[in-house]
Amino acid sequence: MNGLMDCMKSFTLLLSLLLLSASAHAVELTGLVGYDLNLMSNKPSNATNTKGGVVYGFSARIDAGPGKLEAGFIYTPLSITVATPFIGDEKSSGSYWLLPVLYRFEFLPPFFSFGIGPDYAFVGSNTLSTTQGNFSTSAFSNNLGAEASLQGAQDVGENLSIVLDIRYRMGLQDSISFNGVPSKFNFLMFAFGLQKRLE
């Protein structure tokens, strides 16, 4: 819950600054929902499965020089399962609230764009479940990352577009620790959504 509150405070500040600077510009608002593939790196040697889940997010962008400045949030669930001798499977599940700030370039406008920039991930939740009691420890921590996003858009009229977003996130800091083994949170996301341009 603290992660969500921290994320919302930071997102509100980012969005306020973005909208204040957009007084003389058009603003594009985008809502997304999709699925992410958990590509966790440096995971424990006895890890048997890592999963992502249904993601959703929101962003706003404005014209800024040759491209566009974009800020928003993305909610991402994830889990990792390890096989522990004499205990069985142990599963650590949790979620992150990500705050990406991207600079986006359009090519073949208005159909395609590419964005790149940093993000910060706030812990949303973390639970550990085992088959025979809790003999292990797991912890999620806030961490810095970088994102690259390829987006396609199709105008459907009334300044409204259907959007496809393919996004890769690379963790730059340790984020998930299972029995003291730190891992980095990486994912590949596929999402659809709607984009509205406000003049």
Report on the architecture of this protein.
10% of the residues lie in helices and 67% in strands. The protein is mainly beta. The chain has one domain. The strands form two sheets. It has an eight-stranded antiparallel beta barrel with strand order 1-3-4-5-6-8-9-12. Strands 7-10-11 form a three-stranded antiparallel sheet, with no helix packed on it. The mean pLDDT is 84.
Features:
199 residues; mainly beta; 8-stranded antiparallel beta barrel; 3-stranded antiparallel sheet; 1 helix
Provide a quick synopsis of the model.
The chain has one helix at residues 2-20, and strands at residues 27-38, 47-51, 53-64, 67-84, 88-107, 112-130, 138-140, 143-157, 160-171, 176-178, 181-183, 187-198. With 199 residues, it is mostly beta strands.
Beta-strand proportion: over 45%
- Main sheet attributes: strand count, strand direction, barrel closure: 8 strands, antiparallel, barrel
Number of helical regions: 1
Helix content: under 10%
Order of helices and strands: HEEEEEEEEEEEE
| N→C terminal distance | 35 Å
- Tell how many strands the DSSP assignment holds: 12
Q: Which class best fits the helix and strand makeup?
A: mainly beta
Domain count: 1
Q: Could you tell me the radius of gyration in angstroms?
A: 18 Å
Average pLDDT works out at 84
Strand order of the largest sheet: 1-3-4-5-6-8-9-12
Poorly predicted sequence stretches spanning 5 or more consecutive residues: none
Outline? elongated
